[in-house]
Design a protein that fits this description.
The chain is mainly alpha-helical. It is about 70% helix and about 0% strand.
Length: about 60
Protein backbone atom coordinates (compact mmCIF):
# COMPACT_ATOMS: atom_id res chain seq x y z
CA UNK A 1 0.00 0.00 0.00
CA UNK A 2 1.46 3.35 -1.02
CA UNK A 3 1.42 6.39 1.18
CA UNK A 4 -0.33 9.46 -0.04
CA UNK A 5 2.11 12.30 -0.53
CA UNK A 6 1.09 15.89 -0.04
CA UNK A 7 3.18 18.69 -1.47
CA UNK A 8 3.27 21.60 0.96
CA UNK A 9 2.69 25.00 -0.61
CA UNK A 10 4.30 26.87 2.27
CA UNK A 11 7.61 26.26 3.98
CA UNK A 12 7.72 24.72 7.43
CA UNK A 13 8.84 28.06 8.87
CA UNK A 14 5.85 29.88 7.36
CA UNK A 15 3.41 27.28 8.66
CA UNK A 16 4.89 27.38 12.17
CA UNK A 17 4.84 31.19 12.31
CA UNK A 18 1.24 31.22 11.11
CA UNK A 19 0.32 28.64 13.76
CA UNK A 20 2.06 30.69 16.49
CA UNK A 21 0.18 33.82 15.43
CA UNK A 22 -3.14 31.96 15.45
CA UNK A 23 -2.42 30.49 18.88
CA UNK A 24 -1.50 33.91 20.34
CA UNK A 25 -4.76 35.35 19.01
CA UNK A 26 -6.63 32.39 20.47
CA UNK A 27 -4.94 32.89 23.85
CA UNK A 28 -6.14 36.50 23.97
CA UNK A 29 -9.72 35.20 24.13
CA UNK A 30 -8.97 33.30 27.35
CA UNK A 31 -8.81 34.86 30.82
CA UNK A 32 -5.54 34.67 32.73
CA UNK A 33 -4.93 31.15 33.92
CA UNK A 34 -3.62 27.71 33.08
CA UNK A 35 -5.50 27.33 29.78
CA UNK A 36 -4.14 30.61 28.43
CA UNK A 37 -0.60 29.74 29.55
CA UNK A 38 -0.83 26.34 27.84
CA UNK A 39 -1.86 27.96 24.56
CA UNK A 40 0.92 30.55 24.83
CA UNK A 41 3.37 27.71 25.51
CA UNK A 42 2.31 26.00 22.31
CA UNK A 43 2.78 29.31 20.43
CA UNK A 44 6.30 29.64 21.82
CA UNK A 45 7.08 26.07 20.77
CA UNK A 46 5.92 26.81 17.23
CA UNK A 47 8.06 29.95 17.08
CA UNK A 48 11.08 28.07 18.40
CA UNK A 49 10.52 25.33 15.84
CA UNK A 50 10.44 27.90 13.05
CA UNK A 51 13.69 29.45 14.29
CA UNK A 52 15.42 26.08 14.55
CA UNK A 53 14.26 25.06 11.08
CA UNK A 54 15.49 28.35 9.65
CA UNK A 55 18.82 27.93 11.45
CA UNK A 56 19.24 24.39 10.12
CA UNK A 57 18.66 25.61 6.57
CA UNK A 58 21.12 28.52 6.91
CA UNK A 59 24.05 28.56 4.47
CA UNK A 60 26.62 29.00 7.26
CA UNK A 61 25.63 25.75 8.88
CA UNK A 62 25.81 23.82 5.60
CA UNK A 63 29.44 24.91 5.10
CA UNK A 64 30.57 23.40 8.40
CA UNK A 65 29.55 19.81 7.63
Amino acid sequence: MQRRRFKQKQSLEERLVRQATRLREEANAFPLGAAREAILGRAEQAETGAQISQWLRSPGLKGSA
